Amino acid sequence: MIKYYYPNGDTCYRALHTAHAVYHSDDGRLIARAMRPDNSELYEFEIAAFELVEPGVRCT
């Protein structure tokens, strides 16, 4: 799992296989690219940070 931290302090967990990229935009923002939940297309969103969650760790 990946735990994304949004700039407003919220968090979101996503399955590792949905992640496509994490990069810095030209203006310095940290951007994540992931597959939409319905697998229709990739989308991008701003994040403050992210971490990989090891298998077997309960996500709360």
How would you sum up this structure, described in words?
The protein is mainly beta and 60 residues long. The chain has one domain (2-52). It has no helices and six strands. It has strands spanning 2-5, 11-14, 19-24, 30-35, 42-47, 49-52. The strands form two sheets. It has a three-stranded antiparallel β-sheet with strand order 2-1-6, with no helix packed on it. The protein is globular. The mean pLDDT is 91.
Short description:
With 60 residues, the protein is an all-beta fold. It is built from no helices and 6 strands. It has strands at residues 2-5, 11-14, 19-24, 30-35, 42-47, 49-52.
Q: In which order are the strands of the major sheet placed?
A: 2-1-6
User: What is the number of independent domains?
Assistant: 1
Structural class: mainly beta
Count of helical segments?
Answer: 0
Poorly predicted parts: none
Helical percent range?
under 10%
Shape: globular
Present the secondary structure layout.
Layout lengths: L1 E4 L5 E4 L4 E6 L5 E6 L6 E6 L1 E4 L8
Antiparallel strand pairs: 1-2, 1-6, 3-4, 4-5
